[in-house]
């Protein structure tokens, strides 16, 4: 596999791959020198570098009020996705360890029963009608909770014309229905990344569900944390084919 093909598999665009490889060759550079190397306008190179930095592929340093860009080492790129997924998995037990009253004061709510979970999802239908939200999920985890409820949610969501952008575990492929009328845009994570949590990322809250925790799910309504989850989703989405 050629270098650019491998980088595209990682989730980089053609131009991002070109800029990343040029930085590897140069061993670090200013945007001006880099633009000459890749035969692009400097104004074109800047947003590419910004995107690469957001994905963790480029490091930025300041020297004498000038920005220098360095390519992240290739052997570290593969570990970036794994670290991001581990972050999502790690927050569930952290919240579970908190005192419930303490959790409520900082914007956390624990869902204890299937009826509560159903009520939460169906309460979102009217609010998100004709809108979109993000999902990172594992259908196998849903099967351990209530797969019939998942089917109900899918159908009701499609009826309300709610679109979902979904990152699903590799194991979800065999369980995931292919109906186009469900209004879902899906990408599957590589097989080596396994998890059981499902995370629904809304504009003002995040629901994290895991069959192995004592509460069925936890709802996070902390603006700063919601922003982190949204950004992490975008980074992983751009990384996965």
What report would you give on this structure?
- The protein has 10 helices and 9 strands.
- Strands 3-9-8-7-4-5-6 form a 7-stranded mixed beta sheet.
- A hairpin with a 2-residue loop joins strand 1 and strand 2.
- The chain starts with a helix and ends with a helix.
In the CATH hierarchy, the third-tier topology of the largest domain is known as Endonuclease, Chain A
Overall mean pLDDT: 81
- Describe the main β-sheet briefly: 7 strands, mixed
Work out the number of β strands: 9
Low-confidence stretches: none
Structural descriptors:
241 residues; 7-stranded mixed β-sheet; two-stranded antiparallel sheet; elongated; Endonuclease, Chain A; 10 helices; single chain; 19% strand; Arc Repressor Mutant, subunit A; alpha+beta
SSE layout and pairing:
Elements: H1 3-10, H2 14-26, H3 31-38, H4 42-54, E1 58-63, E2 66-71, H5 74-96, H6 100-105, E3 108-111, H7 114-127, E4 132-137, H8 139-143, H9 147-159, E5 163-168, E6 184-188, E7 198-201, E8 206-209, E9 217-220, H10 223-239
Parallel strand pairs: 4-5, 5-6
Antiparallel strand pairs: 1-2, 3-9, 4-7, 7-8, 8-9
